[in-house]
Design brief:
Order of helices and strands: EHHEEEHEHEE
Bound molecules: coenzyme A
CATH architecture: 3-Layer(aba) Sandwich
Shape: globular
Number of domains: 1
Largest sheet: 7 strands, mixed
Strand order of the largest sheet: 1-2-3-4-5-7-6
CATH topology: Aminopeptidase
Distance between the termini: 21 Å
Structural class: alpha+beta
Number of strands: 7
Length: 153
Amino acid sequence: MLETSQYKKVIILNIKHLKECLSLDQATLKGLWNEEQWSKELLDPGRICLGIFESKKLIALCCSWLVLDELHLTAIAVHPKHRKKGLARLVLSEMLKKGERQGAKQATLEVEQSNLAALALYKKEGFITAGIRKAYYKNGSDAVIQWKKLNQS
Ligand SMILES: CC(C)(COP(=O)(O)OP(=O)(O)OC[C@H]1O[C@@H](n2cnc3c(N)ncnc32)[C@H](O)[C@@H]1OP(=O)(O)O)[C@@H](O)C(=O)NCCC(=O)NCCS
């Protein structure tokens, strides 16, 4: 368990948290992944999923995939009732630290151009836009590709 300065604990999610992940995904990411895909996320040793619980409810999650020295961020979400309290920054910064400890030298992500909240979050965390992928999403909108160099300690 990773202790945080805000008295919230960021924990590593595993297959026991499958139901909670599916439920938060439905509430925040419009069902990004189905049960089989979530199982893979939670079981594959090359993927990292972190979460924050309040009582027994998962209220924030962040997932990534470590490919050689690149940390590919694949999902981040905070329950609507718990937004704007710094939880996304908390879980994202823990993910970047964990990725770094596991050998990542840089982190990358794709975000929908219209997702201003996510873009503002990534800017605060030091991500820089590297390009645009046209009509990347099912709804035809463009994806912004961002990168961040990680400090090697
Ligand atoms: C994007 C999201 C994860 C942010 O979660 P959050 O816990 O509310 O974010 P935080 O409280 O940690 O905010 C960190 C920074 O992000 C930015 N931010 C967050 N919400 C914002 C909003 N609604 N509008 C503008 N900026 C916002 C701000 O810069 C904020 O810093 P500040 O509080 O010092 O101003 C959340 O809105 C969410 O789950 N959205 C739906 C899922 C999603 O779009 N995920 C990203 C794509 S996978």
